[in-house]
Structure formats: structure tokens, C-alpha cells
Amino acid sequence: MNKKGILYVVGTPIGNLEDITLRALKVLKDVDEIICEDTKKSLIILEKYGIKKPLFSYYKPKERIRSQRILEMLEEGRNLALITDAGTPLISDPGSIIVSEAHKRGIKVVSIPGPSSVTAALSISGFSGDKFIFEGFLPKKNGELEKRLSLIKSLPHTLIFFVPGRDLKKILQYILKHLGNRKICVVRELTKYYEEIKIGYIEEILEKIGDVKGEITLVVEGTLQKDVKNQGDESFIKNFVKKKMQEGYSFKDIVNLEEIANVKRNQLYKIWQEVKHNG
């Protein structure tokens, strides 16, 4: 009976090619073959460090089909390294099918930790890292996007998203509508030469950004306990409603704002009418 191979899940740089661990380099040099998303992108890091190994492409549309051959190679006793185009595999990248199936078949899976834009962005945001939730890419359809945001709007956790640059304005506008004017950290080109970091409140950031290219890591501050407590204070609610009315918000818009998420709708409507007629 052949001894089964080992599957190494290897983290690779998210930008700066020097952000690779000595252990990752050793594993990439020692394995029989490297499983990657895009062979051309993977060759950049491999050629820099003089690593010459057979490459087997493994990407989302072909993930389930190609995983069968990869599992066969592991069953045959070959040691394989699984890498992604940038960062750690399985974090909004392919790999879950092969890792899950490897466990089911009794194949050893070893983590070779490395860079991740999730933790890298969180570490420079200045927001709490005690509890955070990684949401990855948000839904593209407006209805699904609103539904997703409504599920997480009351969480005290720091929230982290991946956002295509072209969608940044739209995503920020929806977050503003459903989660309120929270403090955010927008990180672009993380660890690269033109790394860019913007920290401020959503309304402030929206005024400053133009057309954005590339992929963004967006960190959003969680609900503050003081805001939740204030929701029972009618003077707070009245002042909040008045301010939003002056900014052009409709009653329907205000109902969905995070700052007053726990206020009963009939109470809020009564205050809305009072502010509307009496100022």
C-alpha cells in the first residue's frame, strides 16, 4: 500500500515579494508539484527565488473537476503545495474542496502560514482586533447586498470586506445607508510601492475619492456600545432624526440606519412627525 502524500497549504505574498517566509520557500522547493490559480502569476514569485517545479492550475470554474486529479496525486504519494495568486489559500480564493476532500481521505494537510490582506489591513486600521468578522466580497445584486448588510449592522465586531475598486463608491453608499456614518479604513495596493491608506468617516471618504482601480480591503468599525445605549434616549433620537432630515433623508432611509436600529418603528414615526411639523 502506497504511503499518501502531504498537502501543504502555503501563504504567499499579497504584494511585496519579500513577504514570504523561509519555511514557505523550503516547502515550495521540496514538494513534487505546486497547485496554483494562475501559472503566470505564480511564476513571478517562483522565478524570483529560483524555484523550478511543475505547476498544476486550479481555479474556481474548474475547482471540482481538477481536484480529482490533485487528490489522485496525493493518494499516489506525491507531496503537493497549494498556493493562491496572492495571500493565503481559501480566504476568498479556491482550495476548500481539495482540503475538505483530503481530510476525508486521511491525507495529511499542513498549514504554512503567510501573509493575508485581512489581518494586514486590520493591523493598520487602528480598530479593535479583539473581535472581527471577515465578510469577503459582498453580493453584487442590490437586494442581496441590502439583505446582507441588514444582518450584520448591529454587530459590535470590526467588519472586513474585499471590494473591487470600481464598486467602492456604491458599497460605501450602501454601508452608510444601512450601518450609519461609521469610521472606516480603506486600503489599496497593500504592501506594494503605491500602497494607499485612507481613514475617516464614510461621508468624509466619499467626498474625497474619485475613480478607484484595483482591489480594496475595507475595514469598518463595529457598533459602539455608547451608540446602542443612546438609542433609548428620546432627545438623542430626536436630534438624530432632525439632523438626518436636514441632510435630505426620508423616513424610509432613517428607519434602516444603524444608530437607531433598536428604536421601535412606531416610536420613530411619532418623533419623525413631531420634528417634521415642529422642527
Structure description:
It is a single chain. The chain has helices spanning 22-30, 39-48, 63-75, 96-104, 117-125, 142-152, 168-179, 202-208, 225-230, 234-246, 251-255, 265-278; strands at 6-10, 33-36, 55-57, 80-82, 108-112, 132-137, 158-164, 183-188, 196-201, 215-220. It folds into three domains: 6-115, Tetrapyrrole methylase, N-terminal domain (Cobalt-precorrin-4 Transmethylase, domain 1), CATH 3.40.1010.10; 118-223, 2-Layer Sandwich (Methyltransferase, Cobalt-precorrin-4 Transmethylase, Domain 2), CATH 3.30.950.10; 227-278. The strands form two sheets. It has a five-stranded parallel β-sheet, sandwiched between helices. 42% of the residues lie in helices and 18% in strands. The chain is elongated, with a radius of gyration of 23 Å. Helix 3 runs parallel beside helix 4 (96-104), helix 6 packs across helix 7 and helix 10 (234-246) crosses helix 12 (265-278). The chain is an alpha/beta fold and 279 residues long. It contains twelve helices and ten strands.
CATH topology of the largest domain: Cobalt-precorrin-4 Transmethylase, domain 1
Under CATH, the homologous superfamily of the largest domain reads Tetrapyrrole methylase, N-terminal domain
Low-confidence stretches: 225-230
Q: Specify the structural class.
A: alpha/beta
Bin the helical content. Answer: 40-55%
Main sheet characteristics:
5 strands, parallel
- Distance between the amino and carboxyl termini: 82 Å
Q: What proportion of the residues form beta strands (DSSP E)?
A: 15-25%
The value of Rg in angstroms is 23 Å
Mean model confidence by pLDDT: 90
Q: Could you tell me the number of beta strands? A: 10
Number of helices: 12
CATH C-level category of the largest domain = Alpha Beta
Topology pattern, helix = H, strand = E: EHEHEHEHEHEHEHEEHEHHHH
Compute the number of structural domains.
3
CATH-scheme architecture of the largest domain: 3-Layer(aba) Sandwich
Strands side by side in the biggest sheet: 3-2-4-1-5
* Overall form: elongated
